TrEMBL record:
<feature type="transmembrane region" description="Helical">
    <location>
        <begin position="203"/>
        <end position="222"/>
    </location>
</feature>
<feature type="transmembrane region" description="Helical">
    <location>
        <begin position="307"/>
        <end position="329"/>
    </location>
</feature>
<keyword id="KW-0472">Membrane</keyword>
<dbReference type="Pfam" id="PF00528">
    <property type="entry name" value="BPD_transp_1"/>
</dbReference>
<dbReference type="InterPro" id="IPR000515">
    <property type="entry name" value="MetI-like"/>
</dbReference>
<keyword id="KW-1133">Transmembrane helix</keyword>
<feature type="domain" description="ABC transmembrane type-1">
    <location>
        <begin position="129"/>
        <end position="326"/>
    </location>
</feature>
<feature type="transmembrane region" description="Helical">
    <location>
        <begin position="177"/>
        <end position="197"/>
    </location>
</feature>
<comment type="similarity">
    <text>Belongs to the binding-protein-dependent transport system permease family. HisMQ subfamily.</text>
</comment>
<dbReference type="GO" id="GO:0022857">
    <property type="term" value="F:transmembrane transporter activity"/>
</dbReference>
<keyword id="KW-1003">Cell membrane</keyword>
<dbReference type="GO" id="GO:0043190">
    <property type="term" value="C:ATP-binding cassette (ABC) transporter complex"/>
</dbReference>
<dbReference type="GO" id="GO:0006865">
    <property type="term" value="P:amino acid transport"/>
</dbReference>
<protein>
    <submittedName>
        <fullName>Polar amino acid ABC transporter, inner membrane subunit</fullName>
    </submittedName>
</protein>
<dbReference type="InterPro" id="IPR043429">
    <property type="entry name" value="ArtM/GltK/GlnP/TcyL/YhdX-like"/>
</dbReference>
<keyword id="KW-0813">Transport</keyword>
<dbReference type="InterPro" id="IPR010065">
    <property type="entry name" value="AA_ABC_transptr_permease_3TM"/>
</dbReference>
Length: 335
């Protein structure tokens, strides 16, 4: 009996590793086919150029603002103080001492370079990734708030609240996100910014309208998820909490919602992962998120293969991280 059990475990382990090998063979075959296809179109891979689109060193120039003579240059460690005296007065510049382009007594004109230094700057892909992450986080937070309010209103006996939630859900879920983005930016944005301008108030940026569109879009789906999660809790739970003297709001806060959250967390994670990918549509309203930044770099560098692969990998990193975070929260709530 023990020998049969050991043989079965050995057979299962062997079969498992065989299928693992098949998986890696499939991945390797796909990569090989892709490489062969690029050879047919005579494409030259240039992965070494990709890092500059994440971070790069920019050459910063410090220029004179007046015309005059360099009176003194005082060294102070890594810094130097350059004093320029002219007919318009005196100017003092604190510059890095590593690359000073003038000497004492030099005559300079406005716009002449006094010194240069290099500084690390985020590249266009890193900026686009930050914009995508920022828009997604804000939209997720506002979407959760809208979803919780809408979900409770959806099951409310008050017809005004219930019908308002139903109308919101049907309108948002019944139209494409792209159309909603265009309406938020070109219609609502024009009206709101015009009103703000008339009252001499600040303008709302395209990023703000993009986050609003994403929030309202995901909020409609979160509303239905919350509604389903609340209704999945047995009605006896509310009746029991009300019999203990709790109000309807207290029953929702302390009894129903904590239990519903455990059930709605997986579909919420799926919705938020879709939101991160949907944020790629923000480019149509001139928001330089990750996809738009990638398109701009492709236009200038003609490295379509490498850049689109990198773009896909960055989205995968964001969505996979959110998936892992959700699994961690599920385990915490289950314990």
């Amino acid at each position: 009996m023990q020998l049969s059990s050991n043989l079965q475990r050995f057979h299962n382990r062997t079969t498992y590793y065989c299928w693992v090998g098949v998986f890696f063979l499939l991945i390797g075959g796909f990569i090989a086919l892709l490489y062969i296809a690029t050879l047919q179109i005579d494409y030259l891979w240039a992965w070494y150029r990709i890092p500059q689109y994440f971070v790069y060193q920019e050459n910063i120039e410090i220029r004179a603002e007046i015309e005059g003579e360099v009176e003194t240059i005082t060294m102070n460690g890594d810094q130097a103080v350059v004093v320029v005296v002219g007919s318009d007065g005196q100017e003092t510049y604190t510059v890095p001492s590593e690359d000073i382009r003038v000497d004492e007594g030099d005559m300079i004109y406005a716009g002449d370079v006094l010194a240069t230094y290099k500084e690390w700057r985020p590249g266009i892909l890193l900026q686009g990734l930050g914009t995508t992450l920022k828009a997604s986080v804000y939209a997720i937070v506002f979407g959760i708030v809208l979803g919780l309010i809408g979900g409770i209103a959806r099951i409310s006996p008050n017809p005004a609240l219930k019908w308002s939630a139903i109308t919101y859900i049907e309108i948002v879920r019944g139209s494409p996100l792209l159309v909603q983005l265009l309406i938020w930016y070109f219609v609502i944005g024009t009206m709101v910014n015009t009103i703000l301008a008339n009252y001499k108030l600040g303008q709302i940026s395209a990023m703000g309208y993009g986050i609003a569109a994403l929030s309202f879009f995901v909020g409609a789906y979160v509303t239905e998820i919350v509604r389903a999660g609340i209704q999945s809790i047995h009605r006896g739970q509310i009746e029991a909490s009300r019999s203990l003297g709790m109000s309807y709001a207290q029953s929702m806060r302390y009894v129903i919602l904590p239990q519903a959250m455990r059930r709605i967390l997986p579909p919420l994670a799926g919705q938020f992962i879709s939101l991160i990918k949907d944020s790629s549509l923000l480019g149509v309203i001139a928001v330089r998120e990750l996809t738009k930044a990638t398109r701009e770099v492709v236009t200038t560098s003609l490295q379509a293969f490498e850049l689109y692969f990198v773009c896909a990998i960055l989205y995968l990193v964001l969505t996979f991280t959110l998936s892992m975070l959700t699994q961690y929260l599920e385990r915490r709530l289950a314990s």
